[in-house]
Amino acid sequence: MNYELKKYTQFGTWMVVLLLPLCVLLTLGAAGAGEWTISAIVTVIVWLLLLLMYQLTITVSETHIRFTMGVGWVGKSYKIADIQSCKVVQNSVWTGWGIRKIRNGWLYTVEGWQAVELHFVDTKKVVRIGTDHACEVCDHIRALIGDQEPALYVLPSKASRWVTPIITLVILLLYAGIFAAHFYNFMDTRVQCTDNELIIEGIYGVTIPRSEIEQVDTLAAFPSITWRTNGYAWGNTRIGNFKMEDGSSVKLFIKKGAAPYIVIQRSEGRTVYLNFEEKQKTVELYNQLTIK
């Protein structure tokens, strides 16, 4: 009699909820940036994590138990003959999700706290595989190795019951913060120009005493950026510290594609590039800065 292949797939809902919007945001930002920046590298890494962690599938055959994660880049297969025992376990909150080294082996999980723990004949190391069908998977494996005792369901700990609501709240706050930051930075740079100083407001803002301004010029075309060292790059907005093609480190408060650009050479600190979406506002600020 042929053994019927058993297959169990758990979808990583929270991994997708957390990573997919982040992937979309980072991709749009990297595409709009037009430069090879750290954000582009982070975008690739987050997409790879999503493809790896969006699901976990366990397959039990007459001779092997196998699991694969995501699109199948990570997976392992174990011979039934090498398994000494199998039990249902409850992962702690601190164990977390993903691919983790645990005290006596390895854990592979994409969501939830239930897992099957495999013990082997020739090693003391164990393997934990997360699944939302832990008892069923464990029962199949036990039957194959000759253990007829049914798997015992393990009640989730009190602490783990709070994890999902907390994760939900954290994710909502995280994305609320991201969207608030984008909205704030999409707005034109807020500038105050007085007789004594130029005040550029915001997260990366700077106050420049008039006595430090050596020269003020305008550019019709913006030079190439090679790296964002500590700043914000999304769409046509560039705010913060950047490295230019000529190797110089500068501070930007610009909207690319909205010429002209004001260049403020300073005796102390980084050169500042500044403009507004409306050309007239840029021209007015330039006139204020060049008044003796």
Task: Note down, in words, how this protein is organized.
- The chain has 292 residues and is α+β, with helices and mostly antiparallel strands.
- It is 30% helix and 37% strand.
- The chain has a 6-stranded mixed β-sheet. The chain has a 5-stranded mixed β-sheet with strand order 5-8-9-7-6, with helices on one face.
- A hairpin with a 2-residue loop joins strand 14 and strand 15.
- Helix 1 packs antiparallel against helix 2 and helix 1 runs parallel beside helix 5.
- The radius of gyration is 28 Å and the shape is rod-shaped.
- The model has no long low-confidence stretch (mean pLDDT 83).
Q: Judging from the principal axes of the Cα atoms, what is the shape?
A: rod-shaped
Q: Look at the helices and sheets and give the structural class.
A: alpha+beta
| Chain-averaged pLDDT | 83
**Based on DSSP secondary structure assignment, what is the total number of beta strands?**
18
The protein's oligomeric status is single chain
Uncertain ranges: none
The helical percent reads: 25-40%
**CA gyration radius, whole angstroms:** 28 Å
